[in-house]
Specification:
The complex is a heterodimer of chains A (about 260) and B (about 325). With about 260 residues, chain A is an alpha/beta fold. Chain A has two domains: about 170 residues, 3-Layer(aba) Sandwich (Rossmann fold), CATH 3.40.50.300; about 70 residues, no CATH class. Chain A is built from eight helices and twelve strands. Chain A starts with about 20 loop residues before the first strand and ends with a helix. By secondary structure, chain B is mainly alpha-helical. Chain B has a single domain, classed as ABC transporter involved in vitamin B12 uptake, BtuC. In chain B, α3 crosses α12, α4 packs across α11 and α9 crosses α11. Chain B is globular and about 65 Å long. Chain B starts with a helix and ends with a helix. The chains are: A alpha/beta (about 260), B mainly alpha (about 325). At the A-B interface, α2 and β8 of A face α9 and α10 of B.
């Protein structure tokens, strides 16, 4: 096969609708002299599972760090529900309903499930200047609800997160995003280092998010994880978007050939 | 039953409390005068000074940082206060405020340097240990400055029978900081910052500010404790508090605080402080050469950490 057959022409990239939830235009990012993102367009629609794939160093992490407010872009524009935004911190992104779950650092290991769910968004009985008395009762009650939603009802909300398996931690993080009614959930390699059984469980949760009206962006380098649940697949390489295609239009084999 | 066992195992301050009871019982049996009213007074007089210090170093340790300069701040702050009052004739209340402001400033510097340049706080505060000690010594000119008679020492060290008024300050700090650490959202942020800084950052917590606050709090408490000791001794000594930073950290570690951050409790700091003070005093009462004190504290520190890690692993292995 000729190389050209593996490359999707830019004209055939899926284009955002007028109603896109997130739309990025020509996002650029420099780290010193490294051009990590060279003008990337990216979007996600309401109620969609977007699979974001690419090799290490392709720029996926940089892109999601910008979308989650952890890093600032050097060029281009981001629109959320049609309005241009500039995130100065993860709090700004979270306030607009964009929540990110990172692979290793989604949770604080020694802290309880209940406390983890509410880090930075603790319900307060009363407060003064943003500091105040936590409503521990409310935290425990909601944690129990969340644990029931993710089939972990045997666990006490006081259990330290370090006692949970990797898949269970991802599940708690997903439950947290659901509790705070996020509109977009960005999952960074959520199935890495998980057993087959746990991987399937996490994939089920992501599929369930769509049923609840939550959009998700699922980052992985494993196409076999992404392909079954994604509605659309975006591939990146060398800081550029190289494909943006509906899942129905491509097989895993074609996709693999494209990004490798 | 197993739930209770697990809860106990995963609370390191419980094992410290058991150790404290064992040590107290041991001394009481071996040297009956150890539990006399007179000796209890001696112990309770000494507890708040190390205790207030350990509250600060402990909370900072939970946030994932160290402060080795607290022993020097312990000398510098009262030196400033006494000189302001005695040599410059400044009103005692104002002098105390200015002295404590110096403490907060040192803490701010410790934090700012550590966080801005991304260097270990161990290094920053080791440097500050020498700097603050040097300034205290230079300020004193080699001799303790005259101690003014109008100093409101009663407010801080008045003899109230079984304890001094410093104990009331200690209790107030325990309640205030205990509530802050265990019941407020700020406390949750401190644990999250020390436990997994990236996770806290990702959840939108300004971890830099949280750490900076803990550095300033720690230094403030060190200055406050040094002031109490100085008012009790009625003399500002440039050598005050030498080596005390390590006792404070030992008190934290014995009380179950993890050097790696994210784990610890105010109850643990208090029990650790009592253990150190009780051993210090008990050795004397039992007529054991007081030079064994450091050996005892050193052994205890190592044992406490081994015990805590073992218990935590055990607790984790139990389902519940």
């Amino acid at each position: 096969m000729a190389l050209e057959e593996h490359v999707q022409p830019k004209e055939s990239f899926v284009r955002p609708s007028a109603d896109a939830l997130i739309r990025c235009e020509r996002i650029e990012k420099w780290y010193g002299s490294v051009h990590a993102l060279t003008g990337v367009d990216f979007h996600c629609e309401r109620n969609e599972v977007v699979g974001l794939v690419g090799d290490n160093g392709a720029g996926k992490s940089t892109l999601i760090k910008i979308l989650s407010g952890a890093e600032r872009h050097d060029g281009g524009k981001i629109f959320v529900e049609g309005r241009e935004v500039r995130f100065r911190s993860p709090k700004d992104a979270m306030a607009l309903g964009i929540e990110t779950i990172y692979q290793y650092t989604a949770m604080v290991p020694h802290m309880s499930i209940a406390r983890n769910i509410f880090i930075g968004r603790e319900p307060l009985k009363w407060s003064l200047g943003g500091l105040g008395w936590m409503d521990l009762r409310k935290m425990a009650d909601h944690a129990i609800n969340s644990l029931t939603n993710i089939d972990l009802r045997t666990r006490s909300p006081d259990t330290p997160v370090e006692e949970l398996s990797g898949g269970q931690r991802q599940a708690v993080a997903i439950a947290r995003a659901m509790y705070f009614k996020s509109k977009v959930l960005i999952l960074d390699e959520p199935t890495n280092h998980l057993s087959v059984k746990e991987t399937n469980k996490v994939l089920d949760f992501v599929a369930a998010l769509r049923d609840q009206g939550i959009t998700s962006v699922f980052i992985s380098h494993n196409l076999h994880h992404i392909h079954p649940i994604a509605d659309r697949i975006v591939a990146m390489a060398r800081g550029e978007k190289i494909a943006d295609i509906r899942k129905a239009d491509i097989t895993v084999e074609q996709m693999t050939a494209m990004i490798v | 039953m197993s739930k209770l066992a697990k809860a106990l195992l995963s609370r390191p301050e419980i094992s410290a409390l058991v150790m404290l009871l064992v040590v107290v019982t041991g001394f009481a049996v071996y040297a009956p005068q150890f539990i006399s009213t007179g000796n209890t007074r001696v112990i309770l007089f000494a507890v708040p000074e190390l205790g207030i210090l350990a509250l600060g170093t402990g909370i900072l340790m939970i946030a994932g940082e160290f402060d080795l300069s607290v022993g020097s701040v312990f000398a510098l702050v009262p030196m400033v206060i006494v000189i302001l009052m005695g040599k410059l004739g400044i009103d005692p209340a104002l002098a105390i405020c200015l002295g404590l402001l110096v403490a907060i400033l040192v803490g701010y510097l410790n934090g700012w340097i550590t966080l801005t340049f991304g260097i270990p706080s161990f290094v920053t505060t080791l440097g500050m240990l020498f700097i603050a000690r040097s300034i205290a010594t230079v300020l004193s000119g080699g001799f303790p400055p005259p101690f003014p008679a109008n100093t409101p020492t009663g407010l801080f060290v008045a003899d109230l029978g079984l304890f001094r008024s410093s104990m009331l300050w200690f209790l107030a700090f325990i309640v205030l900081l205990g509530v802050m650490l265990h019941r407020t959202n700020l406390g949750n942020w401190i644990y999250a910052t020390g436990g997994q800084r990236q996770a806290a950052d990702d959840m939108g917590i300004d971890t830099r500010r949280v750490k900076l606050f803990c550095f300033m709090l720690c230094s403030f408490l060190a200055g406050f404790a040094g002031m109490i000791t100085t008012f009790r001794l009625r003399s500002a000594l440039p050598s005050l508090g030498e080596g005390l930073e390590l006792q404070a950290i030992a008190a934290n570690v014995i009380g179950g605080t993890a050097l790696t951050g994210g784990i610890g409790s105010v109850a643990g700091f208090v029990i650790g402080t009592f253990l150190i003070r009780v051993i210090d005093n008990g050795l004397v009462m039992a007529r054991i050469d007081a030079n064994w004190f450091r050996l005892a504290i050193g052994t205890l520190t190592i044992l406490a950490v081994i015990l805590n890690i073992t218990l935590r692993r055990k607790a984790r292995a139990m389902r519940g």
